[in-house]
Amino acid sequence: MMMYNCAIKEVRTKFEVLNDDLATAHNRNPIEMIKSRIKKPESIFKKLLRKNYEVSMASILENINDVAGIRVICSFVDDIYEVAKMFISQDDVTLLSVKDYIKTPKENGYRSFHIIVSIPVFFANRKENIKVEVQFRTIAMDFWASLEHTMKYKKDIDDADSIMRELKECADVIASTDIRMQEINKKLHYAKPSE
Amino acid sequence: MMMYNCAIKEVRTKFEVLNDDLATAHNRNPIEMIKSRIKKPESIFKKLLRKNYEVSMASILENINDVAGIRVICSFVDDIYEVAKMFISQDDVTLLSVKDYIKTPKENGYRSFHIIVSIPVFFANRKENIKVEVQFRTIAMDFWASLEHTMKYKKDIDDADSIMRELKECADVIASTDIRMQEINKKLHYAKPSE
Amino acid sequence: MMMYNCAIKEVRTKFEVLNDDLATAHNRNPIEMIKSRIKKPESIFKKLLRKNYEVSMASILENINDVAGIRVICSFVDDIYEVAKMFISQDDVTLLSVKDYIKTPKENGYRSFHIIVSIPVFFANRKENIKVEVQFRTIAMDFWASLEHTMKYKKDIDDADSIMRELKECADVIASTDIRMQEINKKLHYAKPSE
Amino acid sequence: MMMYNCAIKEVRTKFEVLNDDLATAHNRNPIEMIKSRIKKPESIFKKLLRKNYEVSMASILENINDVAGIRVICSFVDDIYEVAKMFISQDDVTLLSVKDYIKTPKENGYRSFHIIVSIPVFFANRKENIKVEVQFRTIAMDFWASLEHTMKYKKDIDDADSIMRELKECADVIASTDIRMQEINKKLHYAKPSE
């Protein structure tokens, strides 16, 4: 697991550098926050079994793509695509897959831009390519997703259907408000600063 | 300014303790993030002049309430009032004033719960009561406020009126979505966890 | 354990404030580093059994003084006594016991200044007085102690006696060098700064 | 300056990864602490003038090697050479120069292992090779160097000569104690852990 933790540190540093550069050169901080998590051993184990994969370290490295997860939370939707593009274009980042749940939201309303990349990490006496899942979201999408996530871990909910419908409606309102806020921001961006 | 920085550290620690306790005992993290800022010397100076106060350290300590500012960003509106109440009820926290811009939003749509408190800080050879402004907001209110804030520093905006109207509308949508999300959360809260 | 973690945060903040104040007002950073640790549940359990205490939360709070431990690492011996005095004299810090292993080193050469204090911590709905052990050391004492510590966890050491003798000698050399460095620092302290 | 700050972040992450790997795989933490500093604009300016270099950003990137400085503080002398070797052997680190003030201390007693490297940093829309100075020291060497450093900024010191002689003597005692402690550590390292 230490290996994945180190991969997270390397990817986090890459995003911090991008944010610092954009803050200095372009006077904007597209990244609001960076969160990270390591998948728990039991979840990895369950996933290996569920997918009929061998249970071994080599099998984890090859088959499980989301042991290391980073969440990059941006202010606006456009920031997501811009920062993701800058990150993917770096020499030592290999893009393995893309899932755009912003353009095509999940049925329940979930929105997020997911990529799996592989990056080299230099350990004491070897270099290893480690997979990392990066999820890009706006602040509002992230708030919605955290609520939707708690729903997964609950059962015996009265009105589960009506709650899901309500959640879906909130997701749509949030998505359209994100766009309206972004439009306002663009208009403000081109205005002259006050003295 | 060092004094105000230290006061911020003490207040931040108090909120971290509250959040840790609530996370352990009640399995919830009401506080999503804590941000802080120190008012710039030039802004303090301008404010002293504008309000016709003497320009001295003693005058700053007495007259300027928001040199040290902490922003406590919560998931839900109810969390704001609960965390604020816990904080205010602590022995060594003296509440000086309250402005509830959630119950009574500003005309432009601004929502936030502001308090001014005074807390003792122990320096090398003296104890000093320092004023700190604490702003409580939901994640969505904070996002809105950051956009509204950039508007203040811009001039020569075409359609300033229409942007302000649009911002106001977004504020209202955001406020009502916050309430809807809170209702969903309450319903989920009382449901049994899955096995 | 969360309670002890919170107590550590509060005490750490108090030392950071002292260091910031001394850095600004007196242009010196007496504290080089602050480390902390929570005693492991199994160690607490063993200690309760060894000392014939009841095994309960109340018993831990009353009988075990070093569940929460903070180490304050100073540059010079004089800093230790000065910082400790400032800390102890704070209104809300209650001094419970002192062991001065600098004035009276342990037989093996161990040097450190230990105090047990109790401080109030404000949780969600109660105030609790929590005990914290604070160990003050110079950088060199800390380095020595970390080596001596690894010795405790080893057995079957050839020449255990000669190693202990060698460690003891190093402790004495380190202590006298600490004093010489402190004397040099004092002489430099009173000299004028270059332009 | 932002560019150099980012380079420091990247190098710091590389050392943290090495330390994590060694801690997990070999149960040791060779790196005690990592400090960093950016050279102040006025110091850079003075150095450019003193060395008769052009005053421009391009000239800084080419001619000044220590704008970004990282200090890696290790427990033992052997750790220094081992960690330095691991770092230098990484694909994307280019070694530009080495100065070994441990093997050949400065006349005043200064000991430290210095290297200048260049590493690629990925900014928003370009990759830049940035120079970083890395200083490796033991804890004791670092403490000594910080005292020696304050001497440089003082003038009108009575007994400057005797202080310098005293400092030199302390440096030698410290160096020989470092070696003795390292020998003890080696002996302990090969002993069996207690149950």
UniProtKB/TrEMBL annotation, chains A, B, C, D:
Gene3D superfamilies from the UniProt entry: Beta Polymerase, domain 2, Nucleotidyltransferase
SUPFAM superfamilies: Nucleotidyltransferase (SSF81301)
Stretches assigned to the RelA/SpoT domain: 36-159
InterPro entries assigned to the protein according to its UniProt record, in alphabetical order: GTP_Pyrophosphokinase, NT_sf, RelA_SpoT
GO biological process annotation, one example: guanosine tetraphosphate metabolic process
Pathway per the UniProt entry: Purine metabolism; ppGpp biosynthesis; ppGpp from GTP: step 1/2
Stored Pfam families: RelA_SpoT (PF04607)
Coiled-coil ranges from the UniProt annotation: none
Protein name: GTP pyrophosphokinase family protein
